[in-house]
Predict the 3D structure of the following.
Amino acid sequence: MSYRFTPMDRKVIFDVRQPVAAIVAQYRARLAAAPEDDIAGELRQVLALLPEVTPVETDNLFGDPSHKVGQFIDAALVPKTGTVEAVLAVMRPLARTLPWRYNYEPRADRPGLENRMAWAEFIGSEAPIRSPSVCLGVTLIGPHTLYPLHHHPAVELYFVISGTATWTKAGVARRLPPGSFVLHESNVVHAMETGDEPLLAAYAWTGDIDTLSTYE
Ligand SMILES: [Fe+2]
């Protein structure tokens, strides 16, 4: 499957040091607060694998800054009750340059879904900051949108930055506010559904990061 790129006619500087540092600070705070559970175990794994993050000069962002999902980023970055301002503040200057991509096959039963959700990857095997073993990025889902049931072999750890949505894992649905961590074990079936607010959440993948996610 191919990714959607926007070819550029000049090199750009992709500098995500501040967002990555802000997300890592949240990881460390969660580890300090609750060091013994499954989420803490995966946080340690992610932190051990993260490469050094430096500005990258590139003519290929591995994504599309003009993707239609960008219509929802401003609402996601507005401070609201519980939003994680330390991360939002460093995301705002990047809002127009995030390299969005959506690489599921189209679904006849969900027309337009590819315009309402996407993710922007900072670190990964096909991201401006290369790693063969860990991905880190953000997922953005517009309001009143279902990210349908899906699974992937990678272990996935989400951190909710903005938006309260319904998160379903293995048939159990929970409404989770910003600040929440969600662990999706390898190949567990999961989904997210937004209400009035868009959802912005940081994700990290470990394990088999090269096999794409598939819908059920
Ligand atoms: Fe997932």
Remarks:
- The helical segments are 17-33, 38-49, 73-77, 85-91.
- The pocket of fe (ii) ion is lined by residues 150, 152, 156, 184, 190, 213 (CB under 6 Å).
- The first helix runs from residue 17 to 33.
- The chain has a mean pLDDT of 94.
